[in-house]
């Protein structure tokens, strides 16, 4: 039997941490979104949603771990997600 080929995840976050001085904006956030899947961030103001989106869009760097999509990493790929190169 032939194993099905798995497409890369659309978005992956692995143990993301982001701090602003003494404030923890993201503390050990992990999730994976498959291509074609609907996914949303909901919650009270000031809980890190905008920071997470900025990290995924490469407008901010996480303090630790990795995040990315379509087989690319926002830390190691520096700009590759925005340009579609990588």
Order of helices and strands: EEHEEH
- Large-scale geometry: elongated
Give the strand order, joined by hyphens, for the main sheet.
2-1-3-4
Beta-sheet strand percentage?
A: 25-35%
Count of spatially separate domains: 1
Radius of gyration: 14 Å
Helix content: 10-25%
Number of strands: 4
Number of helices: 2
Return the average pLDDT rounded to an integer: 77
Please give a handful of descriptors for the protein shown.
86 residues; 4-stranded antiparallel beta sheet; 2 helices
What secondary-structure arrangement, pairings included, does this model have?
Elements: E1 11-20, E2 23-33, H1 49-56, E3 64-69, E4 72-73, H2 80-83
Give a brief rundown of this model.
With 86 residues, this protein is of the alpha+beta class. It has two helices and four strands. The protein has one domain (11-33, 42-83).
Q: What report would you give on this structure?
A:
The protein has 86 residues and is an alpha+beta fold. The chain has one domain. The chain contains 2 helices and 4 strands. It has a 4-stranded antiparallel sheet, covered by helices on one side. The chain is elongated, with a radius of gyration of 14 Å. The relative contact order is 0.23.
